[in-house]
Structures are given as C-alpha cells and as structure tokens.
Amino acid sequence: MNDIDTSVPSGAPGGRPSPGELAGRTAVVTGAAQGIGREVALLLAESGAGHLILLDRDADQLETVVKDVGDLGARATALPLDLRERDRVRTELRAALRSAGKLDILVNNAGVADENAPDDESTWLRVLDINLHGTFAVTAACLEHLVDKGRIVNVSSILGKAGKMRNTAYCASKHGLIGYTKGLALDLASRGITVNAVLPGWIDTPMLRRELAASADEIGADPARMLRQARKSIPLRRLVEAREAADLVGFLVSDRAAAITAQSLTVDGGYTRGM
Questions:
Q1: In 3D, which of 20, 80, 68, 82 has the Cα closest to residue 40?
Q2: What region holds the Ketoreductase domain (predicted)?
Q3: Are 198 and 267 in contact (CB under 8 A)?
Q4: pTM of the full predicted structure?
Q5: Within a domain: residue 129?
Q6: Which are the contacts of 145, defined by CB distance < 8 A and separation ≥ 6?
Q7: Cross-strand bridge partners of residue 78
C-alpha cells in the first residue's frame, strides 16, 4: 500500500495572487492579529496591496502584524477595536477610510467561537453580536468607500452548514453570515462588487487550540489526543493551515474571481465530504 503524504504542499499555491497583482489596492481586514486574519494581511501585502487597515481587539498582536506588513512594503493602519463598540468602530473606521481615499477589498474575519448551553443567553448574545452584527457594522461603514468592482469576503465556517453540540450561538452566527453573503451579493451586483464566503473547517489556529483545550478540560480528556482524533477524521489526514484558507481569500479578491459572487466555498481537507 502506498504511503499518503500528509504534509502541507510547499511553494506558492496556485490560488495565491502573484506579486503585484493587487498593486495599489486598499484593504480592510478584521480579526487581523492572528490566525487566518494575519495570514490574509500578509498575503495582501505580498501581492502588492498599498494600504491595509487592520482591526482586532488584541492591540499588541495587531502591532506585530503591522510591522510584518510594513516589512513587506505595504502601509498599515492599526485599529485596536472590539466590534461590539459600534460607535468607535464606525467613527475610527470611517476616519481611516477617508484618509485612505478609497477601499478595494474588505475581508470580514473577526469572530469568536465560545461554546454555550442551549439556554445560555449571555453567550448567545455575545457571539452573535461579534460574529454577525459586528460584520454588518463593519461592512455598513465600508460601503460608501468601496469602489465599483470591489471585493468582499466573509469568513464563515463549515458550521455555517452544519450543527454542533454546545455551539448553537456559533452555528447560528455562521449560518447567518452565509445568508448575509448571498443577500449582500445581490444588493451590490449592479456595481460589479462580488461578495463571497469562505468556510474553514479544522484550521490550525490559536483559536482552535484554545477551543480544544477548553473542551478537553470540560470532559477530562487529553487535548493532544483530541487533536490526533481530529486529524484522523479528515480525509487528507491533516489540519488545514491558516495560510491555505488565506489563499482562497486571496483568489476571491483577485481579478481572476470577477465572475464569482454569492458563493460559499469550503476549505476543510475533505472533512465535510462535499456537503
């Protein structure tokens, strides 16, 4: 029997924009301090984006990403914001966009994945407030600055199509993002603006590690063993890397994806079997 190579492919993936493909473009990325958001920011900078406006509530980590983006030749503006602070989000984001002069790309990546019991109203409200209502607030603030033929990508989840125990809030928010994506795509189609959703599965990010640790602690299990079991459940026998999810975002914001809109595209190593 042949061995299966479960390593991450090396070299520049085919979906990644080539250097200079996004030259001079301005982008907003939320949840940019780590994980998928960080990788998206780096990808955009590598592809020639001129100005990145980066949002995250973790100010220290955000400054690190700003430095990394600057090292790649792009200008970056850090907005350390909690998406629940609607007035600050609107005021500071709009000021940054007025300074930038235009917006070409919006990537709504910020989100939380707190578990909740079915009757846990406080967690329910918090998760939807950040994941769904926060995405709406950022997008609404950006629309007047977004150029015709611009790009919007919303990061949902495979749990935007399925359910999971103790995750009613997260599942509802991610299902909602897919519906929001479809409706917004139709609203903006006359301007040539595309709106799509990316649905990550088991992505190797700090958020996933925290979720596994919390779940393991709750049931008295070993987090490392749970991670091994997760890998075995994926046909490719490995977690998807954050940069691979970012590559899909990179394709969707490129000129090559001009005819793709109102779609929800999964990147999960085959975990959902094409659901």
A1: 68
A2: 25-205
A3: yes
A4: 0.92
A5: yes
A6: 94, 97, 98, 100, 102, 103
A7: 54
Does residue 12 carry a pLDDT above 90? no
Residue 56: give the domain boundaries: 26-203+240-267
Structural domain contains residue 208:
no
pLDDT of residue 227: 85
Q: What residues are labeled active site?
A: 170
Strand bridging mode 26-30 / 51-56? parallel
How many domains is the chain built from?
A: 1
Asked whether residue 11 is domain-assigned, the answer is no
Encode pLDDT of 221-268 as tens digits: 898 898 898 899 999 999 999 999 999 999 999 999 999 999 999 999
Helices 35-46 and 59-71: crossing angle in degrees, nearest 10, is 20
In a domain, 177, yes or no: yes
Axis-axis angle for helices 242-252, 35-46 (nearest 10): 50
Domain CATH for 145: 3.40.50.720
Residue 262: both structure tokens together: 């109102």
- Tell me, what's the pLDDT at 204? 86
